[in-house]
UniProtKB/TrEMBL annotation:
Keywords in alphabetical order: Membrane, Transmembrane, Transmembrane helix
Highest taxon, organism lineage: Eukaryota
Spans traversing the lipid bilayer: 283-304, 310-331, 338-359
UniProt protein name: DUF6594 domain-containing protein
A Pfam cross-reference name: DUF6594
Region ranges (Disordered): 1-105
Domain DUF6594, residue spans: 122-350
Keyword Transmembrane helix belongs to the record: yes
Length: 364
């Protein structure tokens, strides 16, 4: 029995070509792109679903993301991993119009970026290089741990194979050449695992940026036309490259205000953000610490020499100790450092009070 004619054939319309075979879920499901590929700047190749046969042009190999409320997956992002560019088309790669619509093989996305994105990268790089406290990059912590766990699993697989071969050899059988091959394979896998472990440890020793640096960078991105900010999703994954650049204490903020007044000629205002060389606030902060430290120590000593009442001397010691502890806390000293320094300072004040001050003649 012959099959019944199609409706389109009965109406005289041309028959549309058949759809290609269904692609696996991991090829057709929308996914967030790599932050560097989202900006068009290189990254690993991505396999994406084949084009629709009804489309007049081929599918772009890179995923065209939708709006996820914070917009950090915009394909035109010039800021790697942050999203929202200053302009440019979403599809920056030329479409391959000669490709057949029936093709069902995944398309390999070629790495690279356009001239417009290159200009954006250069502008942001110039800003970061001029603002030392705004050198912000992602740690990619989850991906690093995933890579390390995969390499760990590969080492464990070789370990199991080696244990099986060792058992066979001990029982009088087995292949000693297989054991040698497994040992060479184990050496290769361990080197890769050790390298991943060392890189992960080195990355996690880098400190997170300060809140002021994040806010300052977001302001600069907005004023320069980069429509989106550093998303909150990535803020816990951001790092800066130098321990000395983590300057978010009250002392440093006060030092930055003084530096803008003292070094007024070096302050530049670009894109609505006042910028000053990063070493100037650090220099002023060190000068303030060098001035405050002897004052905290010498002023109580002078007061203890002139005060005769015991209760007044005790109040001076307590106030001086609390002030010293607060100053170290503002300078972002560690908990152990604050505790040890405060204890030493209090001991010095008590010894001075008992030996130099006129305790016997005081009126308590």
């Amino acid at each position: 029995m012959s099959p019944s004619p199609d409706r389109t054939q009965m109406e005289g319309h041309p028959t549309t070509p058949p759809f290609p075979p269904a692609s696996p879920a991991y090829l057709s499901a929308p996914q967030l792109t790599s932050p560097y590929h989202a900006g068009g700047g290189g990254g690993s190749p991505q396999y994406l679903p084949p084009p629709s046969p009804r489309s007049s042009h081929t599918y772009h190999p890179a995923y065209q993301p939708t709006d996820h409320t914070n917009g950090f997956t915009s394909a035109s992002s010039p800021f790697p991993g942050y999203g929202g560019g200053s302009g440019g088309e979403g599809n920056r790669h030329p479409s391959n119009s000669s490709r057949s619509a029936r093709a069902s093989t995944p398309c390999l996305a070629a790495p690279g970026y356009s001239l417009e994105e290159h200009k954006d990268f250069r502008e942001i790089a110039d800003y970061m290089s001029g603002e030392g406290d705004c050198i912000l990059v992602r740690r990619f912590g989850a991906l690093r741990f995933r890579d390390m766990l995969c390499k760990q699993a590969q080492v464990m697989e070789v370990e199991i194979q080696l244990a099986e071969e060792d058992g066979k050899v001990l029982q009088g059988g087995g292949d000693i050449e297989m054991v040698k091959r497994l040992m060479r394979k184990l050496d290769t896998k361990l080197k890769a695992y050790d390298d991943a472990l060392e890189r992960c440890h080195r990355t996690y020793t880098m400190p997170p940026p300060s809140t002021r640096s994040l806010s300052k960078t977001n302001t600069w991105l907005n004023t320069r036309g980069f429509q989106h900010r550093v998303p909150e999703l990535f803020q816990d994954d951001m790092i800066t490259l130098d321990q000395a650049l983590v300057t978010d204490g009250l002392m440093t903020r006060f030092a930055a205000l003084i530096a803008r007044v003292v070094f007024k000629k070096e302050v530049s205002r670009r894109a609505g953000v006042s910028q000053i060389p990063a070493h100037r606030p650090i220099l002023v902060a060190r000068a303030l610490i060098a001035l405050i430290a002897p004052v905290i120590l010498l002023v109580p000593v002078v007061l203890l020499c002139y005060l005769k009442a015991l209760w007044k001397q005790i109040v001076v010691v307590v106030m001086a100790t609390v002030t010293s502890s607060f100053a170290m806390m503002v300078a972002k000293a560690g908990n152990a450092e604050v505790f040890m320094a405060t204890s030493a300072y209090a001991a010095v004040m008590v010894v001075f009070l008992g030996t130099v001050a006129n305790v016997g003649g005081g009126k308590g």
